Amino acid sequence: MGMLIEGVWEPDDAAARVGPRGEFVRTQTTFRGTISKERGAMYFPEANRYHLYVSDACPWSHRTAITVVVKGLADFISLSSVAPQVGTNGWTFAEFADGDHDPIYGADHLHQIYSAVQANYTGRVTVPILFDKKTRTIVNNESTEIMRILNSVFNSMARHPEVDLYPRALHEDINSLNNLIYSTVNNGVYRAGFAITQEQYEEAVIGLFHTLDLLERRLAGKRYLCGDCLTEADWRLFVTLIRFDPVYYSHFKCNVRRIVDYPNLSGYLRDLYQFPGIASTVNFEHIKNHYYRSHPTLNPTGIVPVGPDFSLLDTPHERQSLRRSSSA
Ligand SMILES: N[C@@H](CCC(=O)N[C@@H](CS)C(=O)NCC(=O)O)C(=O)O
Fold first, then answer.
1. pTM of the prediction?
2. Which domains does the chain have, with CATH numbers?
3. Is residue 16 predicted with pLDDT exceeding 70?
């Protein structure tokens, strides 16, 4: 890995991501623009104007790619994935492995996109990126905000404008689920995996399973986290659950239980996986190859485990019969 310093790529700065107590620290995101229908807005919602640079392996990217699918925006927003493995040059395009070619600049590495947009850029080179092909700028590279943008401003062209992943009546519930799930689950697995002290690792794993146990109980009486309506909170949880048994359980040492050991969480995972269009956004080859082959400190041999058996994801979930319940 590495980062850009004044537009120059500097490899190997893993130590920069560890805090004083040995904990993993995630860096703040830089590009925070939005797309708006307001007159004079720099970024206007237009078909075929925007591109999403993602990594099929990356959970933060995955939630934006899912938003494209559930809103029915695939014909209007192009999308490409970098190659799964991260090396000394960071994320790379197809020339080096089996990712897509960079459709815009024909670049070899993702860091070239950042420095093409901002010559003196200093910071991390992350996916996802919501890119504007018209002005050749980065609109936003924060997945939570990209999800909200895609959910709200493209309804005039979306095939599923009726889908609202962030309905007003549920804001409070969704926000509190997001906070809990981000800190203990989405980022919790990384805090466990990248901790360099026993104490930090255990704190992350205990918090992670505490939340999974709580969600297991919540999903006993509800089909989705907020009841009958699929929201962004579900898709934000899904991207971590789908990576859990193949990767986080072993590679990040989150091995108290697997998702298949939780009856409700595993049924819920199958339910979301079987939602129209979602299975094709899940690229287990990229997911496994990325994690097991990109972190030599965690897996020096780079051997990618054979399992688990993914065919279980296609088995019936029988969660259709669950109806809104008052129990939380
Ligand atoms: N806040 C960002 C985080 C994105 C992120 O950390 N992406 C990872 C991929 S899973 C990345 O590109 N990491 C490269 C790096 O940090 O150098 C978001 O949610 O969009």
1. 0.95
2. 2-152 (3.40.30.10), 168-276 (1.20.1050.10)
3. no
